[in-house]
Amino acid sequence: MFLGIDLGSRSVKVVLMDGEGNLQRQKFDTMEFYRKYGEKEEDRLVIDVSVLAVPPAGAVTATGYGRQAVGVKGARAIPEVMAHVKGAVYLTGLKDFTLLDLGGQDSKVALVRGGRVVDFTANDKCAASTGRYLENMAAALNISLEELGSHRRDPAELTSTCAVFGESELIGKIVEGCSIPSLAAGVNYSIFKRILPMLNRLPSAVIVFTGGVAYNRSLREIIGEETGARLVVPEGPEYAGAVGCCVDAAGIL
């Protein structure tokens, strides 16, 4: 058994891989996970994986937003980009592609050749093209994330590049009388416009889309049509980083 842990900003993903490559996935709220499984040791919060309700693992690898601030006892720590690329290669069988990972609070793009990262860029200082941004916009529109992801026609023009000011702009558009579908489409296009420069910098004929934002159907369609690339979304895209940790722990890639 091999255990992979992705300490995300919004959720913690835990994946267990057996010797035949079969995967068991679990997801926890980040704060609840730390309260339940974390212990303070000196000045650090340390996660003890031995108390998780999973079978004992031969090796454990961890990554994610909190991997440096939060220690994982008995685990090897690897960078997020490495974890997501290993997960994407394992889940898709592809070795040459551009990885697009849109998570809870950051966005990453990596150029992958021969199954390895040759270049990457990331935006971890702004939440404008992340799951947190989508959650804020859906709340402002009083619709679900699923409904938000169903609109792409007649997009309202949203010009703010900041998650906080973007919400203010959205409220202003509501007051002006813009329809909810048009505003939802505008939100989806605004994310695409923010990630497009990173995709243009590291282009490929195939884009593998990971992270929870990959569930947004309209954004998937926009990326595919606007870039001309073949878009591939692996099963359970939000678990790609944790799967990559399992792959690392197993020494497969």
What is the element layout, followed by pairings?
Blueprint (H helix, E strand, L loop, with lengths): L1 E6 L3 E7 L5 E7 H8 E4 L2 E5 L10 E6 L5 E4 L2 E2 L2 H13 L4 E6 L4 E7 L2 E8 L7 H11 L3 H4 L14 H14 L3 H22 L4 E5 L6 H11 L2 E3 L7 H11 L3
Parallel strand pairs: 1-6, 5-7, 6-8, 9-12, 12-13
Antiparallel strand pairs: 1-2, 2-3, 4-5, 9-10, 10-11
Helix pairs in contact: 2-8, 3-5, 3-6, 6-7
Q: For the largest sheet, list the strands in their spatial order.
A: 3-2-1-6-8
On the 0 to 100 scale, the average pLDDT is 88
Describe the main β-sheet briefly: 5 strands, mixed
Helix-strand makeup class: alpha/beta
Report the principal-axis shape.
globular
The SSE order reads: EEEHEEEEEHEEEHHHHEHEH
Number of discrete helical segments: 8
The fold-level CATH name of the domain at 2-81 and 241-250 is Nucleotidyltransferase, domain 5
CATH top level of the domain at 2-81 and 241-250 is Alpha Beta
Radius of gyration, rounded?
A: 19 Å
Number of strands: 13
